[in-house]
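Standup notes
- HV: blocked on the assembly model, inputs below
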Amino acid sequence: MKRRTLLGGTFAVAMFGLASTALAQQPIKIGMSMAQTGGLAGGGKASLLGIEVWRDDVNARGGLLGRKVELVVYDDKSSASETPAIYSKLLDVDKVDILFAPYATVPTAPLMPLVKQRGMLLMGNFSFQVNSKVGHDMWFNNAPWGPADSWASSFLDLGQKAGGKSIALLAADQEFAQNLAKTAREVATKLGMQVVFDQAYPPSTVEFSGILRALKAAKPDIVYVASYPPDSAGILRAVNEIGIGDNVKLFGGGMVGLQFGTVMENLGSLLNGVVNYNTWLPEPNMYNEGTKAFFETYTKRAVEAKVDPLGYYLAPYGYASGQMIEQAIKAVGSLDQKALAKYLRENTHKTIVGPITFAADGEWKESGVVQAQFRGIKDKNIEQFRTPGRQVILFPAKLKSGDLITPFEAARK
Amino acid sequence: MKRSGIYFWTGAALFLGAALLMTQVIGNQYPFFAGYVILQFIVLAVAWSILGGYAGYVNFGTAAFFGMGVYTAVFLFKAFGAPLPVQIAAAAAVGALMGFALGLLTLRMQGIFFSIATIAATIIIETAITNWRYVGGAAGIQLQRPAVTAPFDNYVEMLFFVQAMLVVLAVAVSRYIQRSWMGRGLQALKDDELAAECTGVPTLRLKLMACVISGALLCAAGAPAAMYLQYADPASAFNLNYSVSTLAMSLIGGTAHWAGPVIGAIVLGTTQQLLTVTISSEVNVLVLGVMLVLFVVAAPEGIIGLVRKIRRKRNEGEG
């Protein structure tokens, strides 16, 4: 008898719950998977916080089309094998209205054919060239990569202006780093530079002094490194121990990890002199409407959420994804995927990371990647990175906040 | 045919019929995406158990076989546009060869040394694939599925049914082995290899056969994953997670009977899928860990062992 009462009670509560949600205006659901465990979790959580800040802002403004915005988020464990099932659940069971892609390339790649087949718009999140083979015309990447080769060309251009003629390539044997190394090779050939050293290393490498000795012996003018967080730290430690040679004018380029607060804090003074790619930095020219307010909120909430305290690399772009979809929905006045995609493709969007215009492949028309040099970094102090002048922007010209110090050995001091 | 045989094949036919009916009736795609993963783990757990359960050789190289299955399919699809059945058959052949090599090379090592050698094999194969640019190398490769064959109107539904057929195949093979002279021989060498050899059990031949069959099934289970994901990269295909999950499923289900890994894979696979879309945070890793610990403590012989123990107690009580 008791059990029956309990069952009845549960049923009644469930029915009441269903009825009450049906009465209220249905929220607009935005679905995504995000790495919350595994190797990409650090980035994934920061990115998600950026999107959550946007959700709260837009809901405070009254939502979209008079409806609240709700996020449906699942953990993809940083793996490609989880995302197809998750996105099929988002589409078929949760019936979300808009899809955001997971953070990074690997979890996103298996989704591209699925969303293309379903005719869904997908807001990309820091993946690299996932649409180049699939050719989905409703894909829009929030990452400022721009054309595939712009990344390497900005770095090598700096090197050439500093008098560099030869280049050494050091890249991790993993998807993102290899893509960077490939474009760097192509750009080097185009610029007439000689590749004097070209080495890939397994992702699990921890000891780099052997590789760096060989690299030093090749006497390159420019060293282009495409590495992941653990190896970025390992490489900089090895450079600190054995040096890199006086002829190196420019060192860095594509080192992932040097954008994350905790990694930067740990490396401290080892970062000095390195010129590396970045997305958003607290330099004077990087502020747009709303940027300052965003970081005020983010900094507060990052403490509770235990994510990257700085959050420069990913979080503002997560917020920008939201802003873009917000503008599109407001302009179109509906959730029609084709109309939204058309709007996103044809207009320039105002965001906290600057104006964004998309090319036909859904990447930024013009690259927004900056190359910045670390200067005057002290050990064990994360707050120093909040002040301008610690990461001086050298490229692009319109965001520039200083000139390159070269050679690398001089800049390290 | 014995009565249990009739039950088994009727059950298998009903299962396949239900799977086929599902693909025709259900319009929602999610059950097929999630179901495919569970079925894939059933095949992996059953195949693993042939060597790991019956013979007691703990193989940590499930990921190596699975990944080779994926990449055999990728290679054949890229080079010749081979259809799905060819991809699976070729993967099974590659798996059988790998199993044979593993059997020859490492069956002379026992216990923990065998297990370590299988992990080493996974790393070596993954490194080789990582450096093979034709199949995408480290950057991975995106694949475009071909058109779907009738009566299916969706490729994932077809993959779901194909994986269901592999489940029936794997379970039938495992059941046959358990009930035949092979199973008894493997049981003997699991208890004491030297004693078994002395009493005339052809241990090396049995071990090789177990390795070949287990390897072929593990690889075959991996082959459809290439078309399921439409993407392959070494880090995902050779993910150690496959080895660990497969092992956990077999152990939770119980390795003494063919039904053990099936039950284990269903329980753990379903839990994993449910956790992904419910709790969906670090907590789900914790839940799985706690589940494993509970089973090891409360039911060291798995669910099958637990059921047997309860039955025996009841019989004793009645007697």
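- HV (later): unblocked. Residues 2-23 of chain A form the longest helix (22 residues). The two ends of chain A are 80 Å apart (CA to CA).
- Next: hand off to the docking folks.
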